[in-house]
Structures are given as structure tokens and as C-alpha cells.
């Protein structure tokens, strides 16, 4: 049995696994038990994810982000779903080792892949385990809204379809609102841009959310582009394996007198509050906010998860790693707070 005596940092917590659900031959879900004293910290939005600390004989631990497939509106406990990947240490360790009653160290929910309006018409795309955050959004929208929801779900074959029974039941329960379109590679081959565009052409007024392998999402982006769906109505979730340790305690950096004198000034709006801060040019936005004790959203600090995405309203920044952002996102002012350093003397940023 896996037990964790104390968390490694002030941000993380130790949660007990209440149940392990076998979803398919290569995917399982972990249902977590959240004690009353942690319920507020572990409240989440549809489409967010948890970061798990996974033991490793080689490095001590690795951190992996797994999306919540549960809905905060319809499910009593948070549930993440993990699908094995070839050579994937984290996913294989979870599927091989975790049992009900085990304890895992977990960071609070994070991520921005979540609708602003659950009442809107939604066009959802998932491929393989990309269904996980999409499922959370789908169930939440059915419960909280009244809009129409279309799901395009691609898999290798029928046996690979995660949540097949649950999706069937939801479609039967909401026949006027939910349309599920399955695409099976074993029967139809890989979907082309043209085929995807033809499939969703009647739904171009919907807000699109997509998650899955890069090749699949590239085709979806191209398909939506050919149909004229605006970029501000298209939202993609991207995950990469984390190399660093987001569970480590933040240590404030020492700032030289020269760097302090040359610092920019930034006005940051977060959760309805505005903070005016000095921003040394060698530090990231997340770093300076943590130094001031501000509860800024972040997870990996490597530019790989998108938790710290925010918008530049005034001024300019440079970023070390922004590969998960599309060029159109950057043009629209989106940045990653954990990668951003100031160029201009004054900036205004909104989370």
C-alpha cells in the first residue's frame, strides 16, 4: 500500500484514493477522498486538472498532470482518468500500482480549459484520453445549462472508447441537447481535415473545446479554420510531461540593487483584486507574485501546462517557452506568467 506521511510543500496535500475504476483495458480512473478541511482548496471548475506526485526509483518522484473527468456539479468526489502511453512512466505506474486505500500527494486543481458560460452551445472534440476534461465540461453543461452540446470522439476502436456506457446513457437522457459522434480508426481510418469539417459544419456557431494528440488537434484547428470559426471561440488543452518539481517550496530570489532599480511596474488583476508590483526584468511574473504572497494560479512553472495563462492589456513581455500557445493566442495578448519577463517599463495584466 502506498502511503505518504506529509506533503513536500505547503501547496500540496495528501489525498486517499477512495476507488480505482477500470475504464478500458489501458485506462483507469482514480476517485479521491477529500476531507472536509481540504474541500475549499480542492474545489474545481469543469475541465481543470490535478497534478500528482508519482514515486520514482531513479529521480525520487515525477510530477504528472491528469485531467478531472468528474463534474463539480454532478459528482460527489473528484476523479482523474489515466490512460497508459507507450513508454509513459507516470501513466503506467498509476495503472499498475494504485489501489483503493492508497495515498498520493496532489496539488490543488488548476488549468484554464474551462467554459466561461456553461449555458452556451458547445462543440467538443476528444481523442483517446483527451475525452477526460471534455467529459467534465459535457456533464457540467448538461446539468447547469440548457444549450446544445455536440461531442466528436475519436478512438482506435470500440474497445478503446473511455466512458462508452456513460456517454450512451447521457445521450439517451438528453436526446434534444446532446449529440455524440464517434469516429473509430478501425472502421473509418484517421479523420482528415475535410471529413472533420463536413462533420461539424452545422455547428459553427458553437464554442469549440478540443483535447487529444497533437495531430488530431491540428486537424481540428484546420477544420474549424476552414469553416470560419473565430479563434476566440476555440479552446485547446495541451499537456506535456513535466521535468521540474512543482511540489517543491517556492524560494524567493535575491534581487540585486541594480536589478531592483531597473524593475518594471506591473498592475495585475486577479480574482477581482488589483496588485501593483515592481517587476525585476530577470524574474517571471509568477515568481514576483509568489514572492509577495499572492495566490497566483500555476503548476509546472515550465510553460508546459497553461495554468498561469493570462492576458497582457498594456505593455510587452518576452517568454522563454510558449510552445503550448498558438501564434493567434499570442497575437491576442495571451502569455504564460511562469515564462514572462517584462520588456516595457509599465505593464497591465489580467488573470
From TrEMBL:
CDD domains: fer2, PA_degradation_oxidoreductase_like. InterPro entries: 2Fe-2S_ferredoxin-like_sf, 2Fe-2S_ferredoxin-type, 2Fe2S_fd_BS, Beta-grasp_dom_sf, Cbr1-like_FAD-bd_dom, FAD-bd_FR_type, Flavoprot_Pyr_Nucl_cyt_Rdtase, FNR_nucleotide-bd. Gene3D superfamilies: 3.10.20.30, Nucleotide-binding domain of ferredoxin-NADP reductase (FNR) module, Translation factors. The keyword Manganese does not apply. Keywords: 2Fe-2S, FAD, Flavoprotein, Iron, Iron-sulfur, Metal-binding, Oxidoreductase. It holds the Pfam family Fer2. Its cofactor is FAD. The keyword Metal-binding applies. Residues 264-351 form the 2Fe-2S ferredoxin-type domain. Residues 10-116 form the FAD-binding FR-type domain. This is 2Fe-2S iron-sulfur cluster-binding protein. It comes from Nocardia jiangsuensis. The lineage of its organism: Bacteria, Bacillati, Actinomycetota, Actinomycetes, Mycobacteriales.
Amino acid at each position: 500500500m502506498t502511503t505518504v506521511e506529509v506533503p513536500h510543500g505547503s501547496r500540496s496535500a495528501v489525498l486517499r484514493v477512495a476507488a480505482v475504476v477500470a475504464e478500458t483495458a489501458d485506462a483507469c480512473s482514480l476517485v479521491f477522498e477529500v476531507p472536509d478541511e481540504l474541500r475549499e482548496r480542492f474545489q474545481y471548475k469543469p475541465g481543470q486538472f490535478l497534478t500528482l506526485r508519482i514515486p520514482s526509483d531513479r529521480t525520487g518522484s515525477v510530477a504528472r498532470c491528469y485531467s478531472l473527468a468528474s463534474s463539480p456539479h454532478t459528482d460527489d468526489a473528484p476523479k482523474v482518468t489515466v490512460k497508459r502511453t507507450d513508454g509513459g512512466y507516470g501513466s503506467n505506474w498509476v495503472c499498475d500500482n494504485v489501489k483503493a486505500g492508497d495515498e498520493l500527494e496532489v496539488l490543488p486543481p488548476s488549468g484554464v480549459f474551462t467554459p466561461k458560460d456553461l449555458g452556451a452551445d458547445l462543440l467538443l472534440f476528444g481523442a483517446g484520453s483527451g475525452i477526460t476534461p471534455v467529459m467534465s465540461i459535457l456533464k457540467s453543461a448538461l446539468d447547469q445549462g440548457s444549450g446544445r452540446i455536440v461531442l466528436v470522439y475519436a478512438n482506435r476502436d470500440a474497445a478503446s472508447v473511455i466512458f462508452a456506457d456513460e456517454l450512451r446513457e447521457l445521450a439517451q437522457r438528453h436526446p434534444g441537447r446532446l449529440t455524440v459522434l464517434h469516429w473509430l480508426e478501425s472502421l473509418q481510418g484517421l479523420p482528415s481535415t475535410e471529413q472533420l469539417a463536413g462533420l461539424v459544419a452545422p455547428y459553427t456557431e458553437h464554442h469549440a473545446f478540443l483535447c487529444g494528440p497533437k495531430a488530431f488537434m491540428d486537424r481540428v484547428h484546420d477544420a474549424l479554420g476552414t469553416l470560419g470559426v473565430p479563434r476566440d471561440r476555440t479552446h485547446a488543452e495541451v499537456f506535456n510531461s513535466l521535468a521540474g518539481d512543482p511540489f517543491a517550496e517556492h524560494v524567493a530570489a535575491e534581487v540585486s540593487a541594480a536589478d531592483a532599480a531597473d524593475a518594471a511596474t506591473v498592475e495585475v488583476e486577479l480574482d477581482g483584486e488589483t496588485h501593483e508590483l515592481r517587476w525585476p526584468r530577470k524574474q517571471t511574473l509568477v515568481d514576483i507574485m509568489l514572492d509577495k504572497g499572492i495566490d497566483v494560479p500555476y503548476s509546472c512553472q515550465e510553460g508546459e501546462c497553461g495554468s498561469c495563462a493570462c492576458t497582457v492589456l498594456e505593455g510587452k513581455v518576452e517568454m522563454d517557452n510558449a510552445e503550448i500557445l498558438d501564434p493567434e493566442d499570442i497575437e491576442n495578448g495571451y502569455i504564460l506568467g511562469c515564462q514572462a519577463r517584462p520588456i516595457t517599463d509599465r505593464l497591465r495584466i489580467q488573470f
